Amino acid sequence: MQASSGMLTKFESKSSRAKGIAFHPKRPWILVSLHSSTIQLWDYRMGTLIDRFEEHDGPVRGVDFHKTQPLFVSGGDDYKIKVWSYQTRRCLFTLNGHLDYIRTVFFHHELPWIVSASDDQTIRIWNWQNRSLLCTMTGHNHYAMCAQFHPKEDLVVSASLDQSVRVWDISGLRKKHSAPTTMSFEDQARANQNQTDMFGNTDAVVKFVLEGHDRGVNWVAFHPTMPLIVSAGDDRLIKLWRMSETKAWEVDTCRGHFQNASGCLFHPHQDLIISAGEDKTIRVWDLNKRTAVHTFKRENDRFWVIAAHPEINLFAAGHDNGVMVFKLERERPASAVYQNQLFYITKEKHIKSYDFQKNVESPTLLSLKKLGSPWVPPRTLSYNPSERSVLVTSPADGGSYELINLPRDGSGAIEPTDSRRGQGNSAIFVARNRFAVLNTATQTVDIKDLQNNVARSFKPPHGTSDIYFGGTGNLLIITPTAVHLYDIQQKKTIAELAVNGVKYVVWSNDGLYAALLSKHNVTIVSKTLEQISTLHETIRIKSATWDDTGVLLYSTLNHVKYTLLNGDNGIVRTLDQTVYLVRVKGRNVYCLDRAAKPKILQIDPTEYRFKLSLIKRNYEEMLHIIQNSSLVGQSIISYLQKKGYPEIALQFVQDPTTRFELAIECGNLEVAVEMAKQLDKPKLWTRLSSEALAHGNHTIVEMCYQKLKHFDKLSFLYLTTGDEAKLTRMAKIAEHRGDFTSRFQNALYLGEVEDRIQMFKEIDLYPLAYMTAKAHGLEEECQSILEATGLTEDQLNLPTFGEPLTLPKPIVPTFKANWPTKATSQSFFEKALLGQMEGLSLEDESAPANGLGEEAEDGGKQENLIDVDDEEDAAGWDMGEDIVPEVEEGFVNVETAETGGAGISEADLWARNSPLAVDHAAGGSFETAMQLLNRQVGAVNFAPLKPRFLEVYQASKTYLPASAGLQPLVNYVRRTVDESDPRKVLPIIPRDLEYLASNDLQRGYDSMKANKLEDGIKIFKTILHAALVNAVGSNSEVADAKKLIASAAEYTVAMSIELERRSLGSQDVVNADPNLLKRSLELAAYFTIPKIEVPHRQLALLNAMNLSVRSKNYSTALSFANRILANGGAAKILETARRAKAQCERNPQDSIDIEFDQFAEFEICAASHTPIYSGTAYEECAFDGSKYHTKYKGTVCKVCEVCEVGKHGSGLKLFA
Amino acid sequence: MDPYSAEGELINIHNHFHQGQYQEVVDFDTSSLSPENALPARVLQLRARIALGEAEEALSDVKGKSEPELQAVAALAEQALGNDDKAVAIIEKLSENNGDENATVQILGGTVLQAAGKSEEALALLSKHQGSLDVVALIVQIHLQQNRNDLAVKEVTAARRWAQDSLLVNLAESWVGLRLGGEKYQQAFYVFEELAQAQATSSLRSLVSQAVAELHLGRTEEAESALKEALKKDPQYAEAIANLLVLKYITGEDGAELKRSLEASDAEHPLLVDLAEKSDLFDKAAAKYSAKASA
Description:
Chain B: It comes from Podospora australis. By secondary structure, chain A is of the alpha+beta class. Chain A is about 30% helix and about 25% strand.
């Protein structure tokens, strides 16, 4: 490349000297007018010559595209201005008037005007619509080299070899021509000649004459927004001028060109001036400081003209041998993605982050103004999540990097206070505390720590141009022809893959695959650098990102495309401007545009998802897609067919012919038959018959032969399947058809000798008839034949006969059914589509959640807590603060003890840090834990708590294998994960209350519902035990915990009542004994008392009601029925209750007297299962609140099996 | 030049050893090593074989050898075979004669003494070291096992100053980190994850270590998948079973089967020993209480 390094050349053409250039405002086109009289139209993106326009005579120096119309204008040394249509590719007309070479021509941005500058020292304004000269501006006294309209105001600026720059006011001209005018062309021409109209207005007057250049001025241009002018002259200077309403003055001079400066312009968006000169350089200047920013030198070609694209970051310069289109800087914003965050650098060099989930941009996190040189954007960004730091590289000054810590939140455009920097072309994090820096000049890679010290250093493979993360501990090293996977630790290449010109590497989200992007290729490799697939694009590939499912989406200049791991690819959508993809999530593609703004593009991922699920054989997913999207079309069908999935393609196709083909291909005979019937073409039947034959499906074969009228084949088929009846029919048919061969054949198959003889006779083949008869020993027949022919036996010369053929008899009636030789391939899809597969219903499974559970939840909310305020009754016992045993001696600061001896383990600290029994248990301090429980809730029988204690104890210790030969290191799992102050750490609690409520409690409910009361009672007791030794996170959760405990206790009581009833004996035994019957009815009634969830209570009530009805206790039964109806709920239960109620109301009498007063208020003693009427004295368990008759005081609670009944304590403590 | 330094010959075998890649250590090609590195490499290989459960073979390999290093290996092998007293005796003799300057004797001696429960003696022997990171790592571990987190922190911080990039320092720091908790959990996790996820450095031990860090971070699902991955590689690996058991307890699942498989693979595992101890403690403590009246 001839241009100096650093210039991003996008296109170069070879031609004779290029004198004029114009960019098309929308399309990737550039017009080049040449010294050789040709005007070329190039597509600079594709690099193709679109057209040539050759009507000028001699050099063409000026060209310009119209902003909106398909027009362009040119002006040449033939004094002619030509207006062309590039659509019709013709010159529309020519404007004559100039008397010498034309230097520049430009369209007005809105009016139908053209301004031209000519060596005849005039500047002229033309109307291209009525093809007239509007105005001739005189004043320059040497060649006018350049004249341009102001982009907004009614001004023209011109440059001349008379060393001056002139600014002209053309507001008069606009006024005259925007007003309706009746002036004829001649009038206008006349008026223009003296430049003033009848009102004394002047069309164009010189506003300012700018003098400062001391040689001729070649080019001049307005600033797009500011009142600035830049000019380039033969004095090798670029001059900047400023103007106000009333005056204009020289601001400064840019010195540097050492030959004539031929062109200059303002950067459309940035504060830069760009100039080109005969010294073969293009120079970029800082508009504010007027200092040189870049110089691009070309070896042999002098520059003659320079132009800027009005919208995008592109420039073009014409030189002795053609034109070049180039960018000043890379537009790819440096960015990095981590989890849900995108970090990127804006055009202002601010680091920002963007949250994909919330779809919000952060405020500026940091400003990188000082990084590199001011006009060079950073190249790459690497993010380190563990340190929240970034590595930014900049190509300025031969490459440099900077390591910066990001602030926690954006606090505006602050400069980083603490950064580390160094020289390098690429810098990336390779581990949480390491980064790699490549220096291409010295060809070294340094691995540095976060303090920027070199930890190790090595020589990468020859010609290394870039480095990328290569998976943990590895680097991907890019050379122009290959990619190396390099192990940093072992300092060697582990794998190498020959890929040309890789520019970017994109890792998949799971880190298993990487996409290597080069200009026109995408190569997908595994993490061990094995090539998986590769694809080629004719259009430049810009970026790529991975879908979560392992699909690569990549963007070219104008498309977003996808590729699967196997290389299948396709277009996802088109792009109207270049973007850089950073992430795909569902239907959203997140990307950064060239202005470094995050954008979301909508895509339809159906096609690639479908293909992906096809490859993964994820049929449910495919089915879902088939059902829910309009994914049809020839492409997907031929794709499926090509990939060997005709059975799936079959599901998409309507066209019978295609369906038939596909059905044959996948052996789906049913569909094939159906289609063949529809189409009824012999060719199809033939194909179907052979396919069916291969399957052994002879019924279909038969049908095909019938359709095809293949009688012989049919006969043979019947013979082989042993279908005699049909064979006989075939014989008849043959007779009808008069087809003797066929008749003979059938007779032969059937063993019908007479028929054969008869047939031979009919066709006068008497010898054969005779022979047949003779061979089968039919002597009479022989005789009759002899008679008929008038011959005698002696005249005949007969061979000897063997045994007559015995007819084969079918042993198995195979014709009755098909032979199951080839499995019919009914695909998963057909089954699913036919709804045959269970669990694969096409509707989303909204499994009707168990109704009971849901209702139970509601019930639970309505029902209030029981007996929480019973605590007050515990007065008199120590209600003060909990006494935490042996703890309060003050915290021993471990750090003060300097040497020697063992320290205190964290487990011991837990006991110190917490007054909760569970924390003591986790710390292994079982004695103190028991002490606490004893004091809090009167726990005395600890045996049932043993599993819980050990569970809590074990859950909080991990075993970390450390040095070889030593025991693993015990570490302590905390529930306070973020805490590191030893005085605040607390152990993890397995099966915390939330877990109990969402798992064990539900299981308990389930067993209640399923009537598995033995299991249920066990479950509820374990809930009680787990809740007893537990901890919660806040005071409000304590209430929830108490609710859980109370509920578990109620269930335990309820279940134990019902279990007692069942243990009375079988129904017959109970009925036989009046005492048992009475007790049974009582227990059934008591079962309805505990405060269990309403749906469950309904079950208890139903049970009690049924039993009562059966025992003719109609009054009691009626009360149960009424309660059921009052509770409401499941219709079935209500219906039963209504019927029972009707029955009971006829005779509301009890036949057996039981101790159950439906109107009294009472609770059930958990030990004796008898009523405790309100008002009588009772005792209770301090933990679970179950009630007992006073005589049970001092015994172990039947419900929790841990606490002593009647022993009050300070109450269970679950939160410190 | 220090053979264990980044440029040294032994760096890879040494790293393999400390990453728990014992088979790689045994398979390491030592033929190209320079003569002065042959012995340390051999010691590493013998230690790896002991770690792989080939203590008897290792013992017969060094029988009758006079080098103090190999005698120390013999002690280690004896201990692995259950002969604690014999091992300690060998080490005590060795440390008197060679303990001052021979790092291998210090390392192996320290290991043997600590494993025999003689932490103070182990620390006394180890404290004689002259810049051996292996020794530092051991000291850190002993401090941690003594619950002297403060001393362990000091040791690591000191070592960090002169051995920035060493694997052992990273490991020791992570061990300490898992004890200290808070932000250190995450840092320890990064170290272990880095080792466990890279093909070149992955081992059962680093995988389990990663899982342990995840457990402490409360990421039980990730921990479980790491542990299961470890168990897939070696279903007998006691540390993986033990930690998976702990995980089951944390998530409230049934651990009975795992406990049985732990008993089968390492009946002496500290988890089981500790559990038995605590079970007795519970029974003893519970016996102190009873209800006033029996029902």
